[in-house]
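User: I'm preparing a small set of examples for a lab meeting where we compare how different chains pack in three dimensions. I only have the primary sequence for this one, and I'd like the structure in token form so I can line it up with the others. Please keep the answer compact; I'll paste it straight into my notes.
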Amino acid sequence: MEFIVKSDNYTLVVEHLQNDMKQQVAAAYRQCRLAKNLTQSELADKSGVARPNISRFESGNYNPSLDMLVRLAVAMDMNLEVKLKAEK
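Assistant: Understood. Below is the structure token output for the 88-residue chain.
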């Protein structure tokens, strides 16, 4: 997700928020995979997502599609829930 804005400070804030969110999502998926006692290879087999893509996603070096997130969740017998929350 990229935004074109006039303020350099705003751009930096958005990029920082994007990176934080990407790391949080990747960590949550990794925790779920480990809680299910699945290896990346096993998850790849169950989901149809290539193992290198799972590895790059979990390490924060891959921006997954919504389709990939759903496939991984379903393969772990989980649902994906996306919420937007108002800032405080």
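A couple of notes for your slides: The chain has a mean pLDDT of 89. The two ends are 23 Å apart (CA to CA).

User: Perfect, thanks.
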